[in-house]
Amino acid sequence: MKKHFILIGYGDVGISIARVLENALVSFVVVDKNEAKFKDKNFKYVVGDATDEEVLKRADLKNATSVIIVLNNDTDIIFTSLIARTINPHCIIIARANATKSIDKIYRAGADYVASLSIVAAQMLARIILGHEIEETIMMFEGLEIERYHVTGDSPLKGEKIADACIRSRIGCTIIGIEEEGKTTTDINPSIVIKEGMTLAVIGNSDQISKFKEEYTKS
Q1: 161 pairs with which residues across the strands?
Q2: Which helix (H) or strand (E) segment is 144 a member of?
Q3: Closest C-alpha among 147, 123, 90 to residue 20
């Protein structure tokens, strides 16, 4: 598989997300320890413990664009985030926290976005991944926001490669989508050159988004 999503955990939330991904006809693979859950399912899946590096490699994580982690145990989510970030430094990792006290730990483990609500999180995560109906700025769980940034002719980002801009390392924000000429992609390759006319979907907490806007919306 190439340029696919990996969904880790197939409980109530995972089932909701998988249904959205199926309906959108995107390429994805589900990882769960319980093989019985996959009876009569037509999508690709891997049976095993997601805290095992070999299991994630079987799901071809190194070629995935996004990883969605919705396990029931926060310790497992932390370990899975660490392993996923090590295998694929460039993928977008989105995770559910079962307890709010785990949110910071999951971020430190490498997640780009952490949601703390279950069923609501399932639908919001799927909408973020697929780029559907994102408003100019959407307040997310635990103070996260998505900002739409329009690249103009005098934008400081114009002509920069995503990797060279170092937005994540300097500001903490992550580009999770790019819209150009009516087409939206969530396959964010660090070598992509940011061009005039693009619209970037950038995610971060309130302070990070404020810092991003302060730096990149200067006249």
Answers
A1: 193
A2: strand 144-150
A3: 123
